[in-house]
Amino acid sequence: MKIIVDAMGGDNAPRCNVEGAVEAVRELGVETVLVGRGYEIMDILKELGLSEPPPGVEIVHADQVVDMEDNAATAFKEKKDSSLTVGLNLLKEGKGDAFVSAGSTGALLSGATLVTKRIRGIRRAALAPKLPVPGGAILIDAGATAECTPEYLLQFAFMGSYYAEHFLGKPEPRVGLLNIGAEESKGTALQRETYALLKEADSEGRIHFVGNVEAREAVLGAVDVIVCDGYAGNIFLKTLEGTALYLSGEMKKMFKKNALTKLSAVMVSGGIRDFKKLLDSREVGGTALLGISRPVIKAHGSSDGYAIKNAIAQAAKFASSGIIESITENMEYMKLPAKPAAAEEKI
Fold first, then answer.
1. What is the mean pLDDT of the chain?
2. What is the pLDDT of residues 63-101, one digit of tens each?
3. 31-36 and 2-6: which strand pairing?
4. Is this model's pTM higher than 0.85 or not?
């Protein structure tokens, strides 16, 4: 399994990207292709005590870097020798099994869509992070497509269902439509029309749709796949992340109040470590970009070496899972029937 890594993307690049790639080769048994400024990558390898790329690590030079200030929609075209563009082209050409980048989300989405291409028939790609809720859940979309149509959400439901089945190991993932109430009549026209489409897909045995789900129940693990437009999904995700940070901070203050609470912290230290690990985005590594014809993983912009290593592990699992094949094979069930052309007005 060969994973292409954007060595220059992210706040801590290229050091942490190189460190993560080397660790992935050592611990996971995968091969990695580091795409970026070769001389900078070699300097870091030397600092790690390596005079040359170790077995399983390949360097492909790319002199340019896509910065956060660049236009996300056109950066991959304007900087054709960037680590992002070169890496995606390597993926397109079959010179790697998956691509990992901690760089600009918008540039990665645009580049993956126009270089690697979407799966034929998929209208929009979607970000599908795993959420730290009981049993785990997939949120789709988390911000790739802010404005959606019912057909987009129908496709998100199918893609999220396949991803939860392969990635979470759930044979019949429960799919819920994020809404302001459980009743079928709730929400805007988008939610009501999507509800009807998902209900029909459920009746045909294509997905396991359990109805609308409110944010509160979604966080408590009521469903395995949370379907929504990217605007609502990004707010949901950021609210969850902020709440987790707040609770972690309050817990830390609580245990530091006095000698007795500090002693209590020692006694439950194992549980605290498990709690922190559950909320640590580094443990998952990144977010899958579903709907693209080849596996693409978006790592967090602040990823350290540990997070990059786990993103590479996630990319390898994605590449071998058969998710893209499942989406491709079932594409006919994700399309709305074409509207009949309006009859010509008789004169």
1. 91
2. 999 988 888 888 888 899 999 999 999 999 999 999 999
3. parallel
4. yes
Long-range residue pairs from 236-240, CB within 8 A, at least 24 positions apart, any chain: 236/139, 236/142, 236/178, 237/129, 237/131, 237/139, 237/142, 237/143, 239/215, 240/131, 240/132
Residues 6+ positions from 343 with CB-CB distance below 8 Å:
none
* Amino acid letter for position 144: A
Angle between helices 15-28 and 305-321 (to 10 degrees): 50
Residue 265's Cβ-count burial label (10 Å; 0-12, 13-18, 19+) is middle
User: In which residue are the tokens 């790690």 written?
Assistant: 48
Extract the tokens encoding 330: 């079932």
Distance CA 209, CA 200 (A): 9
Describe the strand order of the beta sheet including 137-140 as a list of residue ranges.
Answer: 130-131, 137-140, 225-227, 174-178, 208-213
Asked if 111 contacts 81 with a C-beta cutoff of 8 angstroms, the reply is no
* Tens-digit pLDDT profile for residues 118-136: 999 999 999 999 998 999 9
For 10-31, the pLDDT digits (tens) are 999 999 999 999 999 999 999 9
Name residues whose C-beta falls within 8 Å of residue 90's C-beta, 6 or more positions apart in sequence. 4, 33, 35, 60, 96, 99
Asked if 9 and 35 count as a contact pair (C-beta separation under 8 A), the reply is: no
